[in-house]
Amino acid sequence: MIKATAGVDAPERCSQAFTVAAVGVASGVDVSLWLTGESAWFALPGRAAEFVLAESSPLADLLDAVLAGGRVTLCTQCAARRAIGPDDVLAGVRIAGAAVFVSEVLAEGAQGLVY
């Protein structure tokens, strides 16, 4: 489980979260990427493509990799604060809250990282 809290406000932390999630998927790990805080914007179409950080893989490619082989969840409260609804997000992104987050964290063998 990886919880991304940063977006364009802290690009290196943001890129690290997406990179670790994509590498986890590529390695065959069951990955759950949570978009919270400023990273919530990347649940919207086109937003990841706008993100640029030198010497980093394109965020859109990393997000696509996680969507293809893992789970991506947008925090319910973070979505509401930004007026993002279920019809606004990329295909494959779910909106869920703290109860789902806690159940994933407590799942047998779960480990988490926060960026």
Task: Give the beta-strand count.
Answer: 5
Poorly predicted residue ranges: none
- What sort of overall outline do the alpha carbons produce when their principal axes are compared? globular
CATH H-level name... which superfamily? DsrEFH-like
Strand residues, percent: 15-25%
The CATH class assignment is Alpha Beta
Total helix count?
5
Give, in spatial order, the strands making up the sheet with the most strands: 4-3-2-1-5
Using the CA coordinates, give the radius of gyration.
13 Å
Named CATH architecture: 3-Layer(aba) Sandwich
Mean pLDDT: 95
Biggest sheet overview: 5 strands, parallel
Structural class based on helices, strands and sheet pairing: alpha/beta
Give me the strand/helix succession: EHEHHEHEHE
Give me the oligomer status. Answer: single chain
**Distance N to C terminus:** 11 Å
* CATH topology name: Hypothetical Protein Ychn, Chain: A
Please indicate the count of domains: 1
3D architecture notes:
The chain is an alpha/beta fold and 115 residues long. It has a single domain (2-52, 59-114), classed as Hypothetical Protein Ychn, Chain: A (3-Layer(aba) Sandwich). It has five helices and five strands; from the N terminus they run E-H-E-H-H-E-H-E-H-E. It has helices spanning 11-26, 47-50, 59-69, 76-81, 98-106; strands at 2-4, 32-35, 71-75, 93-96, 113-114. The protein has a five-stranded parallel β-sheet with strand order 4-3-2-1-5. Strand 1 (2-4), helix 1 (11-26) and strand 2 form a beta-alpha-beta unit. It is globular, with a radius of gyration of 13 Å. The mean pLDDT is 95.
